[in-house]
Design brief:
The chain has 191 residues and is mainly β. Helix content is 0%, strand content 19%.
């Protein structure tokens, strides 16, 4: 499918729940304070785009291309990233809320999550090598058969990762959050 190319465009305070975002290839575009809640973003290509203070809650990202995308201050609830086009998939998240979203079976190597609230996020069977979880709240997030080799959890908190079910070779943790690796063993850690 040949999509029209829109380059270096700036979109501000647009409500795409009312007027659907046109199917196109968006390159080096910036979206600020836009509402994509429950929007159909399927088959759209986003390349080197910035999303700032946008709402993506329950957006449909079936076959959506996310290539070198930065999400800053975005509300991203219930988004099934595993439905995205896996080719060229790369993104980073800064000060975002990603509750109930899913990265099931995705390759998200070297993704950076910084200061994010990530409650009940599904990382089942995800290849998450070299991922940085800087100051992230991972309350009830699911790590099951997840490859977390070389990933950085030193400032992450509220996580529960079973070392028997996940690959953790060379992953980094701090003394303060090491209990998140032991909860599945029903071990008490006393001060």
């Amino acid at each position: 499918m040949n999509l029209p190319l829109l380059e270096e465009q700036y979109y501000k305070s647009q409500d795409y729940t009312i007027n659907t975002l046109p199917k196109a290839e968006y390159a080096d575009c910036t979206f600020t304070n836009c509402n994509f809640e429950n929007s159909d973003l399927s088959n759209i290509v986003f390349s080197q785009c910035d999303f700032i203070d946008c709402n993506f809650s329950n957006a449909d990202v079936m076959h959506t291309t996310l290539d070198d995308i930065t999400f800053t201050g975005c509300k991203i609830l219930g988004v099934l990233f595993q439905n995205c086009n896996a080719f060229l998939l790369s993104f980073k998240f800064i000060n975002c809320t990603l509750n109930l979203s899913s990265f099931y079976q995705l390759k998200i190597t070297r993704t950076n999550f910084s200061n994010c609230i990530m409650h009940q996020v599904d990382f089942t069977e995800t290849e998450a090598k070299y991922v940085i979880f800087k100051d992230c709240d991972l309350y009830q997030s699911i790590f099951d058969r997840t490859n977390l080799e070389h990933s950085d959890f030193t400032s992450a908190y509220n996580f529960n990762i079973n070392p028997n079910l996940n690959q953790l070779k060379q992953a980094s943790f701090s003394k303060e959050n090491i209990s998140g690796l032991l909860e599945s063993f029903n071990i008490k850690i006393l001060d």
